[in-house]
Design brief:
By secondary structure, the chain is an all-alpha fold. The protein has a domain at about 30-63. It contains 2 helices and no strands. Helix 1 (about 10-25) packs across helix 2. The radius of gyration is 18 Å and the shape is elongated.
Length: about 60
């Protein structure tokens, strides 16, 4: 099965590798995956909160 790959510079990879080791991850891939999942969840949550806010404003519950 094909898995998407991204390219990062050598310096960034070295930084990520160090951070992954310090944080106790078993691999750089695992560390990066965790970071991306967390960021995507935060963005999704922010979008959901904004949508709720717009709906409540539209209904006149908040200004």
């Amino acid at each position: 099965m094909f898995e998407p790959r991204i390219k990062v510079g050598k310096e960034l990879y070295a930084t990520l590798k160090t951070a992954a080791t310090v944080a106790g991850y078993s691999s750089v891939d695992e560390f990066i995956l965790h970071i991306l999942e967390k960021a995507a969840a935060e963005i999704s949550q922010a979008q959901s909160e904004e949508e709720v806010r717009r709906r409540l404003q539209g209904l006149g519950y908040i200004e």
